Amino acid sequence: MLQELKTNHRQIARLAFQGRTPVEISTVTGMSVRSIRGILNDPMCKAAINKMEDSVDDCVIDVRKRLVKLNDKALTSVEECMDQDLSPSVKLSAAKDVLDRNGYVPVQKVDHSHLHLTLEELEGIKQRAKRSNAQIVFDPKESPAESAITSQP
What we know:
This protein has a domain at 117-153. It has helices at residues 7-17, 22-29, 33-41, 43-83, 88-101, 119-131, and strands at residues 134-137, 148-151.
């Protein structure tokens, strides 16, 4: 699909995928903002951007699956470290890592920045998750940190 677009249209699709605004894309390409918007609204361009988003989403889900598979090995390694005759500082470091990953972290400065998504952006995330066999569990009463994206077998 991406190869079917003209070279400058591919460049515009990539820049939009990277989060650039039509004005920024116009500056980079030398084309008018109106032309950029027209190209971005073209179904082939939209499909190309969706394909790029799907590719990134699939990669993220694949990495998450691989990390989940490594959990048991990592825990076994930490347990072996704790049982070996190692220096107290190494054992303390391993213990802190285990506690940190289980939610027992020291009090830290909290960043109160928020992510504001439009309904269209949220719906796009849901659609990409559906296409990649992931499920978004979101409860508006919960914070985004309590929501989750889970893979379906």
